[in-house]
Design a protein that fits this description.
The protein has helices spanning 18-28, 56-66, 98-119, 148-171, 204-216; strands at residues 8-13, 33-39, 72-77, 123-132, 176-181, 226-228. By secondary structure, it is of the alpha/beta class. It has a single domain, classed as NAD(P)-binding Rossmann-like Domain (Rossmann fold), CATH 3.40.50.720. It binds NADP nicotinamide-adenine-dinucleotide phosphate (NAP).
Length: 236
Amino acid sequence: MKRFNSSYKALIIGASGAIGAAFVKDLEGDKNCEKVIQLSRSEPNEFGLTIDLKDEVSLQFAAHTLQLEGPFDLILVSTGILHGENLMPEKRLADIDMSILQETFAVNTLGPALLLKYFLPLLTNHGLMGFISAKVGSIGDNRLGGWYSYRASKAALNMLIKTAAIELKRQKPDALVVAIHPGTVISELSKPFSGGSGTNARDAQIATQEMLRTLDGLKPDQSGGFFAYDGQELPW
Ligand SMILES: NC(=O)c1ccc[n+]([C@@H]2O[C@H](COP(=O)([O-])OP(=O)(O)OC[C@H]3O[C@@H](n4cnc5c(N)ncnc54)[C@H](OP(=O)(O)O)[C@@H]3O)[C@@H](O)[C@H]2O)c1
């Protein structure tokens, strides 16, 4: 990325997912990127670390351990859930279920709030922390309805990011924290919906290259914003 000096360090949280793995590949191919550290739930990294967004201690421990490797110029978070065992996005109010709400918020909102708490302090003064959000989390753009838990969890994530950006500005005026929508991408998460091959869904590598280009061009006064992969600013 051009925004950083010639030996920048990156941390990818959620590196086991389709989008996270594509970010790792992009950054490993960038000759200016000195180091890319991966962190995920299912694949221990070079330090033997894994994290579970529902386990605060695992996040605190990982951040504490990685402090020695940082600070990081770029931290990208590409974790999230939309469906799972006994979990499908709601089509109507009658489908709302406490366990689906709790699971979706735990992974998409509460875990990322703790990532802000523990990992934002590991960012350099000119660094950028980006969370993969989703356009369906836009309140202003919600025309189709449905997917109550997922939409609300991403809208709340965007609010956490906006709020953290205000605090970050006081401490590191040139650093940024933003939300970015990847577009529809082929992955496990999108597979049951429009995310299979043969649909409009794009390969993760295309989406990550687009997102990195957009993130590269952001200015400090755009911190706290919500952007699409192509640079378009999205309504809250
Ligand atoms: N694909 C799309 O079309 C699309 C569209 C809009 C937004 N997004 C967003 O993009 C992000 C990445 O999704 P993806 O498409 O790459 O999906 P994916 O391939 O299913 O990846 C999801 C990632 O989330 C991780 N994860 C889930 N629960 C976790 C937990 N409790 N603790 C730690 N990690 C956890 C998974 O880790 P393990 O595999 O290690 O368990 C995996 O790395 C998500 O935030 C999603 O909402 C995707």
